[in-house]
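For reference, the entry.
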Amino acid sequence: MFSIAGLLALIVTIYLRPHSFIEAIRNAPLYEAFSGLAVVGVLLDVRLRITRLQRTPQVRWVVALVLWSILTLLIRAPRALGGALSSMITPLSVFAVIVEGVQSFTGLHLLTGTLVGSISIVCLLMIHQGLSPFGCLVVKDVSPHGSLFAVPDGRPCVRRVDCEVQPDVEYVCERVGLLGISSVAHGRVRYPGLLLDPNKLALGVGMAVPLFVALWELRRTLSRTILLALFLVVAVACVYFTRSRSGIMVLAATLGIYVWRWYGWRGLVAAVGLFAPMVIFVLASRPDAAASSTERHEILAMGMQMFASSPLVGVGFGQFVAHYYMTAHNSYLLVLSELGLPGAFLWSGVVYVTFKMVLSGVRRYRNREEGAPAATWSLALVTAMGGLMIGSLFLSMSYDVLFWLQLGLCGAFYLCTTGHDPAWRVRMEGRDFGLLALINGALIAGLTWTTRGVAISGGPR
């Protein structure tokens, strides 16, 4: 398949961001180039009848969500339409080229293998960063979301005050690892680009675990067993160095499903015992944990105020940070406050139908010998989706590349499987719409109850 080369290069670019470290390609439009290469590959595959353009059950929901997002901007913030549309292009194009470009299990193996390989390299770099000494960095820039771009100046430090030698220069004291990548919040590891937020880095690692397990289950060789064991070690270490509470939850959930499957309840209890010290150490090393929880409650309260002020169309796609100084840190709250009730229903519908696809695959193929590869992939993808939704309760993932990449993998799996089993089809039925409405009602009720009496110190803009 001609699309695979572009897709593999795109995955490496998304996760490893080589243009962040190689000066010769620093300003090269790699995302655009490799996305275009993947699109050209898809068109060639279709033209040569290697594959054909197909539609997953997600597509109608995605199209409706995009159209509603645009409508909310036309109503609430028409001047922001151009910037908002450009922010949609990358995640949606990643979703589309994965769905249409990967229509065989061989392609799915190559894509996921490249993904977990890239995550493995990131984890190794993060372990080195987490074990590196603290050093002084000069702050060069601060993004609108608070991310720092800082350059090491070569001096060791213990606290930020140790670095402050010039009054007109802003310094930070952080761990400096390979390639000049530095930590944040006094020691929490991070990686440039998609994984710059330590919480998102931990989420990405946790979601990669079931994909690596699937590759191992499909071919249980000694070399793959060793690689899987090594990956699990570096994954746990990497998540630990992020000091991310939500990341530990995601990793524990994705690992826990397989531990329970392999070893039953006794193995699960043993795994909980192993993770408990890690949780304790992380909580002990996060003196800001209580303040962070209070801050997130304030953000939730602000988001619910936005929703209450405009329950039909919200404040407009991408406009949460135009009304408050921080992002929502909760994906469902973000779509509810920005897109109103219809938008939240459509976004949750995309998630629901994706879950239904992979769960249906688990039920259909788990006891069929000829469907073993489909059963393996469906379990891995539903586990990764579960981890993604846990992380989405604490992160703004609604239009994030990591979120839509995972949806694309599920869509690709569906098309791979229906290519071998045309009789399998997943459709939304009346009871699904009723259940989706109940889920949305429960989430709104939960957010309302959680934010009762919460005072907002930052205030709206």
The chain has a mean pLDDT of 88.
